[in-house]
Amino acid sequence: MPRSPQDVYARHLISPRGYPLWTPEPSHELLLHRRDGLRIGDVGVVIPEDGCFDVFFNICLPQDHPFHRATGVPDNFRHLELSGMDIRTVVNAENPGRIIANSSVKCVRTVERPADSSSERTQPSGLEYEFTLSSSEGALLILPEGAERRDLRNHHRFLDMATRHGADWYRFAEEKVGQIIGNDSLYLITGLHKTRSWSVAAFEKTAGTAEHSAQFKVSQAGGDSIAATYTWDTTRALDWHVGPIDNYGLANQTVFIRGFKVALRTGIFGTKWISVTADTPSTRPNPARSFSTVGGNSLFAYVFGGLSTGRTTQSSGSGMQDEVVANSALNDARNEIQNSGALAVGEHVVVQRITETSQAFHPSDIINGFLLDKEPTANIAITHDDDWITILEENLLQPEDLVQEGRLETLVSQKYDVTLDEGAVYLQRRRLFHFRFWLHMTDLPR
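Request: output the structure for the sequence above.
Response:
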C-alpha cells in the first residue's frame, strides 16, 4: 500500500512543535465560515491522503453558531467558553526564514537580498536556499514569514469533555457528517502554529545512495499568488507544494497542531470494514467530503457494530461488468454479516469508495493503542501530544526514534501513570516522591 505524502512528512518532521500538516491551508468550506482557519477547540481529522485538517465542529462555539448550521452538533453537546486569558500567544515563535527539517536535510547556502521597503510583507523580497538531501527519506518546512504560536493554557476541561463525549463525537462524524474514519482518527485541537505562507517538501526511498541537491527560491513578491513567488529546483524526485493558493496575507495557514487524539476500542463502536476490492476507477464524488473527488480502486462496506471480513474480486476491464462483480462481492459480504447475527435491528451495511493509502503516522496513535492494551475494560483512550512532546523535549528520544517499535511505549510506561476514568483511559505525569521530607524526619532528635 503506498504511503501518502502526509505519512512521509509526519514521520520526518514531528518535533516538540507538534504534529505537522502537509497541507496547512484551510479548506475552501472552512474559509466560507471563518477566514482565520483552524481554531483551538476544533474537532476533526487529519485527512491521511492530503494532510488537510477536516473540521467537524468546535467545542468552544455554541450549538446555534452559524458554523454549526450545516451539520449540527453531536448528541449531548455543550460548549466551553474561553476568555482571552485562556489562550497563550507567542507572536514570533518562529522567525522569518525559519527552516525546519529532519537530520538528512542540510542547508548549505542561503542568499538573501534586501527587502522591498514598500512591501508590507515580512519576508525578504529575494531569498534562496540550497539544500543537500543525504539519505533516502526526509522532509522540510520553510517559513519565509515566520510563524506565531497559540496554546490553550489549561487542558483539564478539554480532557473532561473528550472523556465524556468522545464516543458521541465518533457517532456524529459517521452518521451526521458522513465522514468514514478509523477508530483512532479524531483530534481535539488545543494548540497551533500559524503563518501567512509556507513551502513543504518530502522525499522517500529511491535507487542509489548518492547525495542530491535542492534549491528553494523566494522571488520578488507580486499580487496574491505565492505559486509564482516560491519555486523549487531539485535533482531528485521530491514531493513539494507551496501556499496559500489564494487569499494571501492572512495568518491562517496551520503548519503544526497540538491536541488530544481520541481512539475507540475496536468493536465498541465505530467503523467495521469489509474490504471488497474491485479494480474499477472512481469518478463519482465522495459523499463523505462533498468538495473532493476521490480516486482509487477499492470499495469498502462498513457496518456499525458489525463483523469485519475481507473479500477480493478481479476486474473484468469493463465498467459495467466491474460494477456487477463488485456488487456481487458486496452482497456476499452483507449476507455473511446478516447470517452471523451480528446486525441488530436498524443496522445496515453501507458501501463507500476510499483511496488505498495507509493511515498517516502519529505518535499519539501508538500511545492510545498501548493504553487500550493496558486497560482491557476501557472503551476509549485519549492522549495529548504533550505526552510525547515532553519525551522529545527531555531528549529521552529523538524524533526518528518514535517510529521504532516499542521505544515510545517503554518510556511512556516509565514516566506516566495510566488513569482509568469512567471507561476512558489516559496518561498522567508520574509524580516522583521527594525524599527531602523523609530525610529531614530522620534527623529529628528521638
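The radius of gyration is 24 Å.
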